[in-house]
Amino acid sequence: MDQRATVPNPPPAAKRHHDVLLGRYELGRLLGRGNFAKVYLARSLSDGAAVAVKVLDKPDTTDTGMTRSVLTEVAAMRCLSHPNILKLHEVMATRSKIFLVMEHAPGGDLLARVARRGRLPEHAARRYFQQLVSALHYSHARGVAHRDVKPQNLLLDRDGNLKVSDFGLAALPEQLRDGRLHTACGTPAYTAPEVVRRKGYDGAKADAWSCGVILFVLLAGALPFHDANLALMYRKIHRREYEFPPWVSSQARRLLSRLLDPNPETRITIAALMEHPWLKRSLSLDSQLGNMANLPPMTARDELAPAMNAFDIISLSSGLDLSGLFDEAKTKKEKMFTSTQSIDKIMEQIEKTGEKLGCTVERRKASGVRIAVGLGWWESVLSVEVSAVASPLLLVEMRLEGGDGDNGGRRFSWDDMKAELGDIVFAWQDSGDS
């Protein structure tokens, strides 16, 4: 789409925030630059949303033969709509510039995250890997192979969710010849060995190899194969000369061995990965810890609470219907949930819940590690214990203690409690019978 409005070259950094792009986006600071493009943070003037604008110079793109790459990137991103693929909002152009307006991923790239931490715990690596595999499975189903899957091209949004980006080297269905791809491309350390043979290859299987290298990097903090001499590196690849660090689990090792198979015919496919037990494993709290990767840490005040330390008990009087917590007298008397809120916020919400449901709520300290509140004339107490699992994730355990929660035929309703606690709950957990 050729817009005839005149757009100046991006202004100096000190003035960039005043530059308005075609009357639609206010350009901000420079986010990054490549050989042929610069990416700026921008703000939509229509709704104030933050976006990333990739600016390419038309003459440079034409002179360097990058026109096909730009067209491929636009074509691929326009036909892909997945929560783990960076979204292309629109494409604009003037006589001298091309502007790709894309979703902004403020969390940076996955390589920077691994570099800061050295390596990722398995639950966090699994979460990112699940999202990567899901995005590629979706992309392959639509005939698009990425061909440059590497941590630098895996961005993170503000919630820590992975976004696959940079489809400039992607292969579209019309590029197949005899059902195969023949262009050698990608980054050597992440490129499948069959790609460099120039004998034709399956783009989806090549992406699966790259996924294996990425998973190894996430878990080990280093590349499985690395040598300045590419011939020696590919010799190591064909001989499978790599070593697992001792902390990599046996199940992850088996999966990596199937991904880092130099024979594409026997290498595990992305479709098979979708059903692999390591990816489908039920993680309960483990997966939730991974989801906490980008949340802010606890404040100093929150961290005053000792880890695994009971701290508060709420007292409920006779006005509360408790039927939902118990199907029968001997059903579960304990419920647990995780929360990323502060201890004060959790307690405040629990107290408000009791008051809203017509209960008398009071707090009193029973010991240095516990605060007790009575249930009026009932012989029952709902105790609430909060444990610091991993900053900023808290585990909240609620247990009905003493009596049976019966008040003249009215019983304690856990459904009411769940409904009122609302947004302070990150996830409810299964718990055993008390």
TrEMBL record:
> NAF domain: which residues?
303-327
Name the top EC class: transferase
Enzyme Commission number: 2.7.11.1
List positions binding ATP. 54
Domain Protein kinase span(s) in chain numbering:
25-279
Name the Gene Ontology molecular function terms of this record: ATP binding; protein serine/threonine kinase activity
What's an example Gene Ontology biological process for this entry? signal transduction
Provide this UniProt record's keywords sorted from A to Z.
ATP-binding, Kinase, Manganese, Nucleotide-binding, Serine/threonine-protein kinase, Transferase
On the tree of life, the source organism's domain of life is Eukaryota
Q: Which reaction is recorded as catalysed by this protein?
A: L-threonyl-[protein] + ATP = O-phospho-L-threonyl-[protein] + ADP + H(+); L-seryl-[protein] + ATP = O-phospho-L-seryl-[protein] + ADP + H(+)
Keyword Signal, does the record have it? no
The record, for SMART domains, names: S_TKc
Q: Which residues form a coiled coil?
A: none
Q: Which InterPro entries match?
A: Kinase-like_dom_sf, NAF/FISL_domain, NAF_dom, Prot_kinase_dom, Protein_kinase_ATP_BS, Ser/Thr_kinase_AS
Question: What PANTHER family does the record point to?
Answer: CALCIUM/CALMODULIN-DEPENDENT PROTEIN KINASE KINASE-RELATED (PTHR43895), PROTEIN KINASE DOMAIN-CONTAINING PROTEIN (PTHR43895:SF33)
Regarding protein family, the annotation reads: Belongs to the protein kinase superfamily. CAMK Ser/Thr protein kinase family. SNF1 subfamily.
What name does this protein carry? non-specific serine/threonine protein kinase
